[in-house]
Amino acid sequence: MAAATMTLREALRRDPELLAARSSLGQALYGMGDLDGALEQFQTVLRARPEDVPARLQLATALMARHDWRSARAELEHVLRLEPDVAQAHYSLGVVRYTEGDLAGAIESYRRVLAREPGHVDARYNLALILKLTRRDAEAAPELLAAAEAGFPKAQYFVGVAYANGLGVERDLARAIAWWFRAADQPVPQAAEALAQLRQVALGRARRPAAERDAASRAFRDYRETLWGEFPDLARAADDESMGAALLRRGRVAEAVPVLIREASALSEPAQRLLETLYEQGVDGELAPHDARILGYLARAAGEGQLRPRIELARIYGHGLGVPKDVGRAIALLKSTPHEDAQRLLQELSATGREVR
Q1: What gap in Å lies between CA 124 and CA 111, rounded to an integer?
Q2: Of 128, 164, 197, 240, which has the fewest CB atoms closer than 10 Å, so is most exposed?
Q3: Distance in angstroms (rounded) separating the CA atoms of residues 123 and 107
Q4: Alpha-carbon gap, residue 167 to 136, rounded angstroms
Q5: How far is the C-alpha of 50 from the C-alpha of 48, rounded, in Å?
Q6: Can you give 14-48 as a three-state secondary structure string?
Q7: Three-state SS for 287?
Q8: What phi and psi, each to the nearest 5 degrees, are found at residue 287?
Q9: How far is 115 from 131, CA to CA, in rounded Å?
Q10: Residue 188 neighbours by CB under 8 Å, 6+ apart
């Protein structure tokens, strides 16, 4: 970009009337963070050619970057008087209006964008947030859902919130879980935290009424059932078989591991046990032992206080399975885990002659 700037300046030194070069120079300076230089170039173009819509739109963008909202708004409104159908101008005007506190105006601008470009996901997401902010949840929900289905991560999180709380949609905790998992994969930290908190409720570790605990547990179970719909070609060998186990049975190991992690993250004990086995043993020719994805799941689940992952993580560190051996860390995990399996492993590790701290 710096080289382009030098070339463009030389061209303008030779012929100051090259407006296309001046616009390009303004874009290059903007890209380099020289907002004052960019503004000067765009303003020079517009003095010679006041109806140059691209240059005026670029000027407005540079003004927005300087947080000169009033001037940016004036330029955007000028663009729309010249060409009322420029979606980018409507979108930028929506940003400016929201920043200035004109929520009704921002809603109008984003709806004008979507009337021209229904696939403009940023506009749809911003519109949904403002509708939520103004407590118009019934209007916000379909906009959020459309943005979420288009793959917008934050929208996926907020759709989960909507389903979890019945905001503009019928309450459906299993659907909330599904959307939070999709958002957490992006990753959206708030979605991962929402899932972690709900797991605490389902496992009875949060001070919530029994009905809420049962509802959370049932929602995770219902979510696990929906995973079968992603693989319609597979049939269960038993009523309680996990989706990941069915994939393993068919030799589809590459697909099975992420599904097992998803099922275990949705509180499937059979999936947890399979992951422990896969981590320690792998699958000949298909999956090497000590897979980092499985270790990551075990560490996250242990950090939440889940029993089996804590014991397995202690075994991994106590024996150095794919990680540097750390008996002290293993013992610390086991001493805070009141379970007979944990106590047996604690005795085993203590018998190695290391001091229990």
Answers
A1: 8
A2: 240
A3: 10
A4: 9
A5: 6
A6: HCCCCHHHHHHHHHHHHHCCCHHHHHHHHHHHHHH
A7: strand
A8: -145, 120
A9: 17
A10: 153, 154, 156, 157
Q: Which residues pair with 303 in a beta bridge?
A: none
CA distances, 146 to each of 98, 118, 141 (Å): 21, 10, 9
How would DSSP label each residue in 161-220?
A: HHHHHTSSS---HHHHHHHHHHHHTTT-HHHHHHHHHHHHHHTT-S---HHHHHHHHHHH
Q: How far apart are alpha carbons 160 and 145 in whole angstroms?
A: 10
Amino acid at 82: L
Q: Note the pLDDT of residue 356.
A: 41
CA gap 77, 86 in Å, rounded? 11
> How many helices (H) and strands (E) would you count in the chain?
20, 0
Distance CA 84, CA 92 (A): 13
The number of beta carbons lying within 10 Å of the beta carbon of residue 204 is: 13
